[in-house]
Design a protein that fits this description.
Elements (H helix, E strand, L loop, with lengths): L15 H13 L2 H8 L3 H15 L4 E3 L4 E3 L1 H28 L4 E7 L4 H15 L3 E7 L2 H10 L4 E6 L6 E16 L20 E4 L4 H12 L8 E5 L2 H9 L5 E4 H8 L5 E4 L7 E9 L5 H14 L6 E2 L3
Parallel strand pairs: 3-4, 3-5, 7-8
Antiparallel strand pairs: 1-2, 5-11, 6-9, 6-10, 6-11, 6-12
Helix pairs in contact: 1-2, 1-3, 1-4, 2-3
């Protein structure tokens, strides 16, 4: 038996209906039972199997008046047909999941100065409201996150803004103040009216290069009138180490309010000072690619996060 070709000379492709009919007959070894199993009339099923044999150019079944047997080729191709049908079913299931919001994989990038303090809230929200969402978290610095978003490695970012990045849409969540963390006996510890100008001459400890929080702190210092030559000690890769250096008396540092309870609760050698209004602050937002296929879903996620984060010491920014 020779497989027929199209007018262009290419072999004809079997249809899914033909594969489904053949798979049913291979399982039931009975035309009537196979037709009933897939909801097809017996003549239509017989025609579909015959058309498949013609398309493939091989005999799949040995038909007798009493029973149906698989030919050697039919034995081999029945397994292939089932594999194809299972793959198509998986494709349809995946497409259905893609149409449904808050299902499937969501690859969320988070900066290090946000991850330890906001992820508990994010994870509680996802577990409670979006149980079918497969949230995958990646903690990286801002430049790496933006590259991952642009390359499609990440779907959504949680970080400090503004970014001034082309092709990126920001969904603001909240503003949070910075506070001054000092050694216990520091003259600014415990005050609630610290002027920004106090930052001019302090021994300030900052994060390493590459952290956006370092850049934000330096901007705050410049706004306060701190000169470029004033001493700034850069000796920590994370906020936890930075706070421990403060506890050891090496200087003072700026912390976002969301990090305060976690980081200062580890030592009794620390004091906290609050700035006079308007206090220096940063804005935290979600960021997505412009024109993202899941834009509506991400906007709804931002709204849910604003609601969940209302209990934190922040000022919610309505979208």
């Amino acid at each position: 038996m020779v497989a027929p070709t199209t007018p262009g000379g290419k072999p004809r492709q079997p249809s899914l209906a033909q594969l489904r009919a053949f798979a049913a007959v291979a399982e039931q070894l009975h035309f009537r039972d196979a037709a009933a199993a897939i909801g097809m009339s017996q003549p239509a099923l017989s025609g579909a199997v015959a058309a498949l044999e013609e398309a493939l150019g091989v005999q799949l079944l040995e038909r007798t008046t009493r029973k149906v047997l698989l030919s050697p080729a039919g034995e081999r191709l029945a397994a292939r047909a089932r594999t194809v049908l299972e793959a198509v079913g998986a494709l349809m299931d995946e497409a259905e999941a893609a149409r449904a919001p808050f299902t499937g994989v969501l690859r969320l990038g988070v900066i290090p100065t946000v991850a330890p303090y906001l992820l508990p809230t994010v994870l509680r929200l996802v577990r409670g409201r979006y149980p079918l969402l497969d949230l995958q978290v990646h903690e990286e610095q801002t430049a790496s996150l933006l590259d991952g978003l642009a390359q499609g490695r990440l779907d959504l970012l949680l970080l400090a803004v503004p970014l001034a990045a082309p092709g990126v849409v920001e969904l603001p969540l909240f503003d949070e103040d910075f506070v001054l963390v000092t050694p216990q006996d520091h003259w600014l510890g415990g005050r609630s009216d610290i002027p920004r100008a106090a930052l001019k001459e302090l021994d300030l400890l900052l994060l390493d290069e590459g952290h956006c929080l370092r850049d934000q702190a330096l901007d705050i210092c410049r706004e306060a009138g701190r000169t470029e030559g004033a001493p700034v000690t850069t000796s920590a890769a994370g906020l936890s180490t930075l706070v421990q250096l403060v506890a050891g008396g090496l200087g003072v540092t700026l912390l976002p309010r969301t990090a305060l309870r976690v980081e200062t609760g580890r030592s009794e050698q620390l004091a906290t000072g609050y700035f006079a209004d308007p206090a220096p602050a940063r804005r935290i937002a979600l960021a997505m690619r412009a024109g993202a296929a899941r834009q509506e879903e991400f906007e709804a996620f931002a709204g849910a996060l604003r609601e969940a984060m209302g209990v934190l010491p922040v000022r919610i920014v309505e979208g």
